[in-house]
C-alpha cells in the first residue's frame, strides 16, 4: 500500500495453501521464487502455509533448503495463522517470524483494493454485477445452502 500505483501480485506470485495442496504445487512455487530468472523483483507469498500436510511441509522444507543456495536475494513471505504456530512450516521458519497486525485502517485498505479492482471501462461484463463496477466481490449469507 506504500506504492498505490504498483500492481497487485500476479497469480504466479501467490500460493494459497490448503490441506489438499500437493508437494508438486509447492515445489513449482518455490522454484519460481528461488531460481533466479529475468522475472524482475517479485515478492512471493505463501498464504496459510500452516495448512499444508506434514508430508508436503517436510518436502517443501527440503526443497527450500536445497534451492536457497541458488539465489541469495529471493523475496518470500509465508503467512500463517497464529493459532497454528506450532505446525511444521511455522516451526521450521520460526527464526524469521514476525508477528504482524495490519497497520492501516480498514477504510484505507478498502479504498486501496477498490482502486485496483475497479473495472476501468464498464461494459456488459460480470463486473457490472458487483457494487461500483468492481471485478471481484464477496457474496455471503448467514443461512447455508441458499444458492450462492
TrEMBL record:
Alphabetic keyword roster: Ligase
UniProt KW Ligase keyword: yes
One GO CC term on file: membrane
Gene Ontology biological-process entries: negative regulation of non-canonical Wnt signaling pathway; sprouting angiogenesis; ubiquitin-dependent protein catabolic process
Keyword Ligase: yes
Transmembrane segments: none
GO molecular function, one term: ATP hydrolysis activity
PANTHER family noted in UniProt: E3 UBIQUITIN-PROTEIN LIGASE RNF213, RZ-TYPE DOMAIN-CONTAINING PROTEIN
Protein known as: RN213 ligase
Organism per entry: Eurystomus gularis
Amino acid at each position: 500500500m506504500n506504492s498505490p500505483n504498483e500492481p497487485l501480485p500476479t497469480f504466479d506470485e501467490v500460493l494459497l495453501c490448503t490441506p489438499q495442496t500437493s508437494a508438486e504445487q509447492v515445489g513449482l512455487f518455490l522454484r519460481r521464487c528461488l531460481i533466479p530468472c529475468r522475472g524482475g523483483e517479485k515478492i512471493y507469498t505463501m498464504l496459510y502455509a500452516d495448512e499444508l500436510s506434514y508430508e508436503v511441509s517436510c518436502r517443501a522444507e527440503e526443497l527450500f533448503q536445497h534451492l536457497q543456495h541458488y539465489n541469495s536475494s529471493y523475496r518470500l513471505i509465508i503467512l500463517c495463522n497464529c493459532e497454528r504456530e506450532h505446525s511444521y512450516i511455522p516451526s521450521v521458519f520460526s527464526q524469521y517470524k514476525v508477528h504482524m497486525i495490519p497497520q492501516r485502517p480498514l477504510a484505507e485498505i478498502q479504498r486501496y483494493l477498490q482502486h485496483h479492482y475497479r473495472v476501468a471501462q464498464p461494459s456488459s461484463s460480470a463486473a457490472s454485477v458487483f457494487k461500483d463496477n468492481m471485478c471481484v466481490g464477496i457474496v455471503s449469507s448467514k443461512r447455508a445452502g441458499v444458492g450462492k
